[in-house]
Design goal:
Strand content: over 45%
Number of strands: 11
Shape: elongated
Low-confidence stretches: 1-22
Mean pLDDT: 84
Largest sheet: 8 strands, antiparallel, barrel
CATH architecture: Beta Barrel
Radius of gyration: 15 Å
Structural class: mainly beta
Helix content: under 10%
CATH class: Mainly Beta
Keywords: Signal
Number of domains: 1
Strand order of the largest sheet: 3-5-6-7-8-9-10-11
Distance between the termini: 33 Å
Number of helices: 1
């Protein structure tokens, strides 16, 4: 169950757009697949859960010139209490779109299972949006570890 809960925080990642002369993150939805790999490191005062997954991102609200559907390779490391509750972590997702442009997103996973982060690197059409901030939240999860999430601008 720990793997399933933490898989939900894997990749709550946004994309940015340019609208009305200002950088803006558009709303997006993601489908987090069950982890491709999962490792649990047990400690005396807690545990580390390390997951990787390939997620599907719905960018149907993206501006012209951006793809409407992409996949991302995501990994996260989450700290768990001895009882299995998350109390922090980090996640990274990288994607390359069909045009060959790429973006890397990094975020902090909060104890409330929100993902607060930013785009840390981008090429091509993503380059102007490096530093854009976002907040992601899980909107639903199955017992298999698959989940839906939603991402919005943090500012």
């Amino acid at each position: 169950m720990k793997n399933i809960i933490l898989a939900a925080a894997v990749s709550l990642i946004p994309v940015t757009a340019f609208a009305d002369g200002h950088s803006k993150i558009w709303n997006m939805a993601g489908l987090g697949n069950a982890p491709d790999s999962s490792e649990m490191m047990q400690g005396t005062t807690g545990s580390l859960l390390i997951n990787t997954s390939t997620d599907l991102w719905d960018w149907s609200q993206a501006p012209e010139g951006f793809p409407t559907l992409v996949t991302a390779e995501c990994s996260q490391t989450v700290a768990l209490t001895p009882e299995g509750a998350p109390f922090g972590g980090v996640g990274v997702c990288g994607m390359m779109d069909p045009d060959g442009d790429l973006a890397i997103y990094f975020g902090e996973i909060t104890p409330q299972m929100e993902y607060i982060g930013s785009m840390t690197a981008g090429s091509g059409k993503y380059e102007p949006y490096v530093g854009q901030k976002f907040i992601g939240t899980v909107t639903g999860m199955l017992s298999t570890g698959q989940q839906m999430y939603h991402v919005v601008a943090a500012d």
